[in-house]
Specification:
The complex is a heterodimer.
Chain A lengths: L4 H17 L6 H6 L15 E7 L6 H16 L2 E7 L3 H13 L4 E5 L3 H13 L4 E4 L6 H4 L4 E3 L2 H14 L4 E6 L5 H13 L3 E6 L5 H14 L5 E4 L2 H14 L4 E5 L5 H7 L4 E4 L2 H18 L8 E3 L3 E3 L4 H9 L4
Parallel strand pairs in A: 1-2, 1-3, 3-4, 4-5, 5-11, 6-7, 6-8, 8-9, 9-10
Antiparallel strand pairs in A: 10-12
Chain B lengths: L1 H6 L15 H6 L4 H17 L6 H26 L7 H18 L4 H26 L3 H24 L13 H9 L1 E4 L2 E4 H19 L1 H11 L1 H6 L4 H27 L10 H11 L11 H20 L7 H26 L1
Antiparallel strand pairs in B: 1-2
Helix pairs in contact in B: 3-14, 3-15, 4-9, 4-10, 4-12, 4-13, 4-14, 5-6, 5-7, 5-12, 6-7, 6-12, 8-12, 9-10, 9-14, 10-12, 13-14, 14-15
Classes of the chains: A alpha/beta, B mainly alpha.
Chain lengths: ~325, ~350
């Protein structure tokens, strides 16, 4: 590209100078560094075991990242070698379970979004003497699969909590925004909202992998039906798109969301967001690994064979200051 | 009388290849005409069935969505005229946004530095795509499929490595954010209707691309390369440089769209953009590009993106059952392509 070394050198120097001259006075990494924190505890002296965590999470999704961080925190504490893998398609997820069995891990933590496809693989693992716990999805079927415990939220229950909260606010028409078509747990949330909400209920599908498109689709819906006075999104990043849509369309609608990320607490503090329904993904990951360790080390079963609920946990302006601190660190 | 008739010399028969055609017949032969008719038909259709669609504000929302699809689609169309595909375009938008955001945040540098670094990285991606295609002679469909997956992996892995999360940090309080937002993601009001600045850029890029295609040597080269690379090489067209340039053109407009996404939403999630590469190709094809190369138009791609945005949002404005949304979208797009093909055949037959 560059004709001579001299010219390359010159360009490098100019860029370097520009970087030093172009420092930002506000924000950025510098501002973050003094707010650093994290979750950590000592380490157990039990022998090292290997736990496979196999989920249906899409790579690059904030939510699954927090589950993984919880699992990692427990693994560090319990002297566990954690092997995380995921695949959104249930056939591939079943194969991942099989490969965990083949590599003779000491415990498996698995999500059950599609129980008929995954239960046979779970049963195989149990037959091979590997303890299994379920997390996040499959609350209705985990007992049938033979898994020891279940850590997660009941999606319908979470939806109902959202519906109740919106009804209490006196809203008349709620719009439920679904960011991916054909996912059972997302539909469950919206149907839960429908169940307890006292006014009119409408849903809409948007393209969750394109923010501008998501924003304009929600804006279009608000225009099409101006009676909508409350919007519920099913994921934290989607709430940010909905916020833009409400502004764009000149709608007076208020907003609530499921799930949580570092951008959510400031929006609740500023009043742009009424509430966020958290299912505590960190806890789901943490408890899954910790429970397998407890089972191995001391024969305990958390929940005594019944589901252990990690949500719904409602965050609003009353508790946002407390919870927000941890969200900023990316663990809440 | 009969003498004068006989004496009148017959006018020399003009060569029909160089004859000037009437303005109408030239218009009918344009590749984007079918798309234009399709756009009008779909617009009128939704104007009748969906009351909120008639509002000027709704048109502005549709134009915004169309512009965000349409900006990369223009470059993708020009690339397709040159006979190549780019499947990495959708995730390249996200890559650009991630690079700009993470660079400025991590080095606490002025936003504009991040923007320039990101531009350099984006052009680099385009160069690599183009270089691999011309150097290996492997179809671009396969080469860019590879870079698509690589970028998808890089987006996630590097973001995770750098920020510890899968989304970038909020950059809205970094110096230079506001001026960058003015350029890439501002809005203004005309007659009470809020217009996003991307609309102007979209129109501007479409005009520039059209001028390049129709009024310059490079434009001729692009059509020639897409029509037949060996014959254009034989007449002295720098085929390799043209193709690499076309890929860099795509990555430039992807970078632009990435900057818009960053400054409109302050943070970027690393998994975004997957699937959009097909929307760009759909817009180009609906707008009259042939999948085989050598034929098409940049304005057509802009109209194609408008058709896509209008169909996608029109379904919402009409309040149809959301479960059926993608079915209706498919029907409308297929209809637009059929209409386009029909009009082009009629235009060619009548010449």
């Amino acid at each position: 590209m560059f004709r001579s070394r001299k010219r390359l050198l010159a360009v490098t120097m100019v860029v370097g100078l520009a970087v030093t001259a172009g420092c930002s006075e506000s924000g950025g990494k510098k501002a973050e560094e003094d707010a650093a924190g994290g979750v950590g505890a000592g380490q157990a002296n039990t022998e090292r075991i290997t736990v496979a965590m196999i989920t249906h999470g899409a790579p690059g999704d904030t939510f699954w990242d927090i589950i993984q961080k919880g699992a990692k925190a427990a693994a560090d504490k319990d002297n566990v070698d954690l092997k995380y893998s995921s695949d959104p398609s249930s056939g591939n997820q079943a194969n991942l379970i099989q490969s965990a069995i083949d590599s003779k891990v000491d415990g498996i933590a698995v999500t059950l979004p599609d129980p008929p496809a995954l239960i046979p693989a779970v049963k195989k693992a149990i037959a091979a003497g590997i303890p299994v716990v379920a997390l996040n999805a499959g609350i209705g079927q985990f007992e049938q699969s033979g898994a020891l415990s279940y850590f997660g939220s009941d999606e319908s229950l979470a939806g109902e909590a959202g519906g109740t909260r919106a009804s209490e606010g006196g809203y008349k028409h709620v719009l439920c925004v679904i960011q991916f078509q054909g996912q059972v747990q997302l539909e469950d949330r919206c149907n839960g909202v429908k169940k307890t909400f006292t006014g009119k209920w409408t849903k809409i599908y948007v393209n969750g992998s394109d923010r501008p498109s998501e924003q304009s689709t929600i804006a279009a819906k608000l225009k099409q039906d101006p009676s909508v006075d409350f919007v519920i999104t099913l994921g934290a990043p989607d709430a940010l798109a909905a916020m833009g849509a409400i502004k764009d369309s000149g709608s007076k609608a208020k907003l609530g969301t499921f799930d949580f990320n570092p951008q959510i607490p400031p929006k609740i503090q500023s009043g742009e967001l009424q509430f966020a329904i958290d299912q505590q993904p960190f806890l789901q990951g943490y408890l899954s690994v910790d429970s397998l360790w407890l089972y191995k080390a001391n024969g305990n079963i958390i929940g005594g064979g019944k589901p252990t609920l990690t949500g719904p946990f409602l965050v609003d302006n009353k508790n946002v200051d407390f919870v927000g601190k941890f969200a900023a660190g990316g663990t809440r | 009388m009969s003498q004068t008739l006989a004496a009148a010399p017959a006018p020399p028969a003009g060569d029909e290849r160089v004859a000037r055609r009437s303005a109408l017949s030239r218009l009918l032969a344009r590749p984007e005409l079918g798309a234009l008719v399709g756009a009008i038909v779909i617009y009128v259709f939704f104007f009748i069935v969906a009351a909120p669609f008639r509002d000027a504000g709704s048109l502005s929302t549709i134009l915004y969505q169309s512009s965000v699809y349409g900006i990369p689609a223009i470059a993708v169309a020009v690339l397709m005229i040159g006979g190549e595909f780019d499947l990495s375009a959708g995730v390249a938008v996200t890559s650009s946004a991630l690079v700009a955001s993470m660079f400025s945040y991590q080095f606490t540098a002025n936003m504009w530095i991040g923007i320039l670094v990101s531009l350099a990285v984006a052009l680099g991606i385009g160069f690599v795509n183009g270089y691999l295609v011309v150097r290996t002679a492997i179809p671009s469909f396969l080469v860019t499929l590879g870079t698509f997956f690589m970028l998808r992996g890089l987006n996630l892995a590097l973001t995770k490595q750098v920020t510890g999360n899968v989304a970038t940090n909020d950059v809205s309080n970094i110096d230079g954010f506001d001026s960058a937002q003015n350029v890439f993601a501002s809005q203004f009001t005309v007659g009470g209707v809020a217009i996003k600045v991307t609309l102007l850029w979209w129109v501007g890029f479409a005009i520039v691309a059209t001028l390049i295609l129709l009024r310059t040597h490079i434009g001729n080269w692009i059509f020639a390369v897409g029509g037949s690379a060996p014959s254009s090489r034989a007449v002295g067209v720098p085929v390799k440089r043209v193709k690499i340039g076309l890929f860099m053109g795509v990555s430039f407009l992807c970078w632009f769209t990435g900057m818009h996404t960053l400054f409109a939403f302050n943070t970027v999630q690393s998994g975004l953009g997957v699937g959009n590469e097909f929307i760009y190709i759909v817009a180009a094809v609906v707008g009259g590009c042939l999948l085989t190369g050598g034929y098409g138009s940049a304005i057509g791609a802009a109209i194609g993106a408008f058709i896509y945005g209008m169909a996608e949002l029109g379904i919402v404005y009409a309040g149809w059952n959301p479960d059926w949304k993608y079915f209706f979208l498919g029907v409308l797009l297929l209809g637009a392509i059929l209409l386009n093909t029909y009009i082009r055949r009629r235009a060619e037959a009548s010449r």
